[in-house]
Amino acid sequence: MTAPGDRGQDQLIVRYSDLDVAGHVNNVAWLRFVHVGVSRAVASWRAPGGSAGNGSGGVAWRWADIRYRRAVQAVGTPITVRAIPVERPEGLLVTCEVGAAGPDGRTTECVTADVFLGPPATTALERGTPHASGTEQPALTGRWPWSLVVPVRARDRAGGGSLSPVAAADLLQEARHDALSTWRNNIRGRLVVARTTFCLGQAAVGKEILLHSRCSRVGRAAVELTSRGVDPAGGAVVIRSTTRIARLLTHAGQEAAPWSDAERALLQDMGMSTSPGGPAAVPPNGHDPSGGCGQLDI
Question: Which residues are within 8 A (CB) of 135 and not within 5 positions of it... i.e. 6 or more apart?
């Protein structure tokens, strides 16, 4: 699957299991590509004085900011992941560039990501947890209109019983699907994921995780969906995420189209809704990485 590249670069290949039902490389697959680059950067990192950075447990993912730019559909497409670690006083920032090679051999940028790693979290996320932009996330009041209970699988766990970054992306994908299913049919065109950020806190995860979602901001041509994952055993928030979702009117178009007045009213109503959404259950194998939404299409 992996071939050696130049310093700081990995070569991977798109597999059938990386594709979603629409034939696009899946969001979670892109996150796995990023994870490979980040892991390599952390393993090769040298702290001041020449001591090696501990990629196995000395640092952990604390937040990630991922921007999706181009879709990939062909199995066997070579994927290049370049990761550059930059030491910060509070931890390590890894910048990733993920590209796909075309028939002419030229690489097209598909995903860019900034991942911050620091000492493993010892507590759950609190209100105002710093996220990818370095600012505080806005506090949301009222109920969360959409709630979903999702089983946690053995492979979703990282060291110490907390969620792995790939598992977190997988769970957040389920939350997006649950929320969008109630209003997707009233929106024209294709809904696409343009950007997602998420924070991870310490989580002694049991058998399930409770996902909440709501529309938190309606822009000219995009809507932001805020989600959080809660450990049902103690109520601790272990994941917090904001995803920017835009709309393309055609399969060929790459420019987000503004909402109509009716669509904007619908989205704003969703954002202000206080009607409780009773937690729905997902079958044990319901959140499979290769079966959800792709890099672009919801």
Answer: none
How many CA atoms within 13 Å lie on the side-chain side of 234? 11
Structure tokens at 45: 């990192």
Is 162 in contact with 203 (CB distance < 8 Å)? yes
- The rounded distance, in Å, linking the Cα atoms of 26 and 34 is 13
Q: Which helix (H) or strand (E) holds 43?
A: helix 27-44
Task: Annotate 105-148 with DSSP letters as a single string.
Answer: S-EEEEEEEEEEEESPP-S---TT-B-TTSSBPPP--S--SEEE
**Beta-carbon contacts of residue 183 (< 8 Å; ≥ 6 apart):** 266, 267, 270
Q: 80-110 burial string, b = 16+ CB within 10 Å, else e?
A: bbbbebeeeeeebebbbbbbbbeeeeeeeeb
The pLDDT assigned to 232 comes to 86
Q: Tell which residue, 3, 151, 136, has the closest CA to residue 79.
A: 3
Spatial CB neighbours of 276, under 8 Å, sequence gap ≥ 6: 143, 145, 147
Q: How deeply is 60 buried, as exposed, middle or buried, from its count of CB atoms within 10 A (0-12, 13-18, 19+)?
A: buried
Look up residue 116 and give its two tokens.
């911050």
- Tell me how far apart the alpha carbons of residues 94 and 37 are, in angstroms, rounded to a whole number: 9
The values of phi and psi at residue 36, to 5°, are -60, -45
> How far apart, in whole angstroms, are the C-alpha atoms of residue 200 and residue 277?
24
User: Which residues sit opposite 79 in a β-bridge?
Assistant: 12, 100
Lowest mean pLDDT among 90-104, 115-129, 227-241, 246-260: 115-129
In tens, the pLDDT along 22-77 reads 778 888 899 999 999 999 999 887 654 444 444 345 788 999 999 998 888 889 99
For residues 96-117, average pLDDT = 90
| Cβ(282)–Cβ(274) below 8 Å | no
> Angle 117-94-54 (CA atoms, 0-180°, nearest 5)?
50
